[in-house]
Predict the structure of Nicotinamide riboside transporter PnuC.
Amino acid sequence: MVPGRRRAAFPQHTPAKRRTPRSRSPALPPNPLTKALSSMFSFLHPISFTLLHHVWTLNPLEDTAAVLAAASVMGLAWRSSWAWPVSLLATVLYGCVFLKARLYGDALRHVVYVVATLYGWWAWALEARRVRQAMKTTPVTGVGARVEQGLGANAPLVESGAEASYGEAGWMRLCAPARFSWRGAMPMALVALAVGLLWAWSLQNWTNDPNPWMDGSLSAAALLAQLWTARRYRASWILWAVIDCFDAGLFVLRGLYVTAALHLAYVAMAAYGWALWHEAPRDTAP
């Protein structure tokens, strides 16, 4: 030891005190309701995140097409012929959406829908004109006059020369639901079946579509529903509801979540449209 230098003092090491383990209460069995809710939220989390991400990034073309398509369905539920030009614009925009997403089969399918929409617009415009002319010339007598003019037995009559159409505002151009006829419905079903088979065969041989026959079946059913809507058959709403359920799942697999959500909303709109057409006076003309 060097003289004059003090020895450094080192702290003495004291052993750490051991903590006595606390007594734990026995684990409770998991609550079935809590377990089910946690499973549901864990399943919905990626879907909700994707939807929020889509709304945040905004796809204006798909969003505009979805809004126009929903508006056209509501217009058809209200039996207005103005719904057809809106549906035509929505169909064209959806064709562009599918082209952008490289879904060439769906894009080409919408070309057929454009033709069917033009036919529906023409048919409903003629019917609206016929109804307006009938309302101008129908005397206020009774149920017999209503039936003779091709109107429903409960259709409201207005005096001669009035500009109202079918008891509503004339600008809406309302049309009455038609009586379902197998003579008129079966040829449309055969045409839709032929188009669906040809479409499915084309997708299977010329494209890499993973579900060509499902796409072909949905295309045929949608074309048939479009033609039945053009003929104002009330059964078209039931067919649309079934198609929209399958289409929603198909669009989820293809990443078009807004369109899938729209098709789920279409199911509720189809039920609403069927209820409105069920209460509306039916056209007795064949």
